[in-house]
Amino acid sequence: MTTKLLALSPLTDANITTLEKYHVTVVTPENITPDDYSDIVISYGWRSKIINKILETPNNQLKWIQSFSAGVDFMPLDDLKKHQIILTNTSGQKAVPIAQSVMSYIFHFARGLHVYQSQNHWEPFEQQFTLQELPVVIFGTGRIGQQIAAYLHIFGSTVYGVNTTGHPVGSFENVFAIDNLQEIPKDIAIVINALPGTTDTENFFNKEHLDLFKNLFLFVNIGRGSTVNEQDLLNKLNDGSIQHAALDVTKQEPIPKDSKLWHQDNLILTQHSTWAGESESLFHVFMKNLPDFLTDKPLTYNVVDYERGY
Ligand SMILES: NC(=O)c1ccc[n+]([C@@H]2O[C@H](COP(=O)([O-])OP(=O)(O)OC[C@H]3O[C@@H](n4cnc5c(N)ncnc54)[C@H](O)[C@@H]3O)[C@@H](O)[C@H]2O)c1
Ligand SMILES: O=C(O)[C@H](O)[C@H](O)COP(=O)(O)O
Fold it and tell me: What are its E.C. numbers (predicted)?
């Protein structure tokens, strides 16, 4: 008895040999035929419209989607729940490259590189800060939030966290519940968003919530663009109540050519690219669940909760 897998992300020859040992056969978007739609059991990798075609095929066999992404806001979660299709994500897999990008944003502004980058005359810039001077709060104390906190601690930062209930996590100085933000210390200088895109987090960083932070040095978003009201953020970057921002994710991706974001001086835009760099392979993540899947055991690694949306 073989199991058919649709490979939407590349597999090496060694990966395919491993899958053969488990009696898993591979179909790719290049060689898929309409007959395959009703036989695919596992989808592996990048998002694709092929998944929708499979879901629309009567009596399809799709039982498990292994997403390439950690964020699964683009997945048809209601449909997957209705058809009881398991969804696993890659949370944790790209935490190291993302956290290193966040550190580079922070150093860029804290050490004054943004000034020197555009300067063509000799004028030392002394408004530089060490990380001990810039207390941080990270929204989302998950795998990415924890990796950023670990790096920040090396440089002596004070790091607070925010999550759903305020439950303590790892080495955060203190963790606050998202509905109890008044408790966050008033001297926060850096806000980092590592929240997933869900109905609960949509437009969370609007005027009301950004107003909680007075004279913010830096706002960073590497979670999802849906969490930020971009006009409210731009207003604050322009009135000086937020000095700098770094956005890896935005409401519209690619960012439209006529977007005001392109012209904001105190803002760095990276293009949903902070995850790039060496990280655990997708195949390795996938293999943590495959033996259980093939022996009808419950999957335990990175299983998405449809209700929560992450
Ligand atoms: N920029 C990128 O390329 C990139 C790459 C990977 C992930 N991401 C995004 O980062 C997100 C987080 O990734 P992760 O691996 O750290 O996820 P994770 O599941 O490990 O952690 C999610 C965290 O968010 C918190 N959270 C969720 N909903 C919340 C709410 N409503 N209020 C307060 N806290 C809430 C959870 O308590 C948890 O601490 C992903 O969902 C994805 O959207 C972006
Ligand atoms: O959620 C993630 O893991 C990243 O956002 C993702 O890997 C980058 O690609 P996306 O699927 O979000 O375009």
Answer: 1.1.1.290
